[in-house]
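Note to self: keep these together.
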Amino acid sequence: MYFRDKTMFSFVVFSVCYSLISAVVQVEPSEISSYVAAVYEHSLILNPEPHVPLSRAASLQHLQRNLDIYEQQAARASQQGAQILVFPEDGLQGFNFSRSSISGYLEIIPDPQQERWNPCTEPGKYNNTEVLQRLSCMARRNKLYLVANMAGLQPCPLKTDPTSSCPSDGRWQFNTNVVFRCCFSRRLTV
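Structure:
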């Protein structure tokens, strides 16, 4: 999304951060007095051939390069007093993928309404969740709420329910924003 007016951009960032914090912390928006938010516009390292499927290992290698930059920026934001850091859409894997070529980048993202799981402290609970683990530890290490966009997947009932809208490869793919929190009381103040 492009904004010509910086006031409008600031309002959108404020609104998104305010909504995310109140949802994650599970308090009424009126109970949050203030917080410091940072938004990082990332000049990502692109996959030179986004339409060529990569193995999980090759996809992770590409993701790790962008996560290394996220690590630096999270530390910097924390040092500058940020309490929430928002990373851009498609900032980890890039864009312009086909359904099949993004498959190596996909991770199962459990529904936080259905279960409690901390990828940083419980890394062995799910396979192929290295990005979730790294983002979770990044939030924990830097004492930040951290919002990142990533490629998610959920298996679907192809075999058990042939009438469902499940794609032929047996998975739904999502462009998902994940939010991690760490180390704050319910009331954020500056």
